[in-house]
Amino acid sequence: MPEQNPQVVLENRTNQPEKDLAKKRALLASTEMVPIQGTVDVEVPTPVLWEAFTHANWWPRWNKCFFWAHNRDLVLGKKLIWAFEPIRWWYLYKMFAIANIVELEKEKKVTWEVTALPGFYARHTYHMQDLGDGGTRFGSWEQAHGAQIRFPLTRKFWVAHFTFVKDRSLEGARSLESIYQREGKISKEKLPKRRYWLFWLTILILLLVLVAAGLAGWFYYSFLRPTEVSLAPGVEVVMGGGGNSLLVRDGQELMLLDTKFPPGSDWLQKRISKEIGAPVTIVVNTHYHYDHTQGNTNYPTAKIYAYKSVPELMRTYDGEWWHGHQSGIPTELVDGTKTIKVGAQDVVFTHPGPAHTHGDIYA
Ligand SMILES: [Zn+2]
Question: Which of 181, 222, 242, 228 is nearest to 45 (CA)?
Answer without folding.
Answer: 181
